[in-house]
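Appendix C. Worked example: Flowering-promoting factor 1-like protein 1
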Amino acid sequence: MSGVWVFRNGVIRLVENPASESDSNARRKVLVHQPTDEVITSYASLDRKLTALGWERYYDNPDLIQYHKRSSVDLISLPRDFNSLKSFHLYDIVNPANESDSNARRKVLVHQPTDEVITSYASLERKLTALGWERYYDNPDLIQYHKRSSVDLISLPRDFNSLKSFHLYDIVVKSHSVFEVRDI
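Step 2, the predicted output written as structure tokens:
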């Protein structure tokens, strides 16, 4: 995955960046607020943009910088040090394609080792627990899982049937070698 993270209308997406770093063939990733073409270089800058879009700072976890949008179950979880920010953290704020599109194919979460389609939180929790994830009970409005060895937090709606594709991708990004999203 290479390119530039572009921030437009509250949506962040990865686009190709033809400029490569001077000392390698790797491509540098940056977060850009498209309406202003501002490169986001600090949490202060990101905070201003997210606040303007209705996100609120969430102070319950001292190990993370988190934002929550009241009108949704979305929770953005980021490491406290901006310089530790990785591209996978930005998936928390990527807004997927319009899921209300009637032509869109339904997506399911699949546990790759067993090829099992995850159809309940009980099934998902068994798989995540086996991978070292623990249930996180600090928010009564969400079902959350935290992995002790990381800053990752998976936040899901309480109703399994309310899962959206961005929730599924959040699980995949944070457990990429075990889960995948498939169209059905």
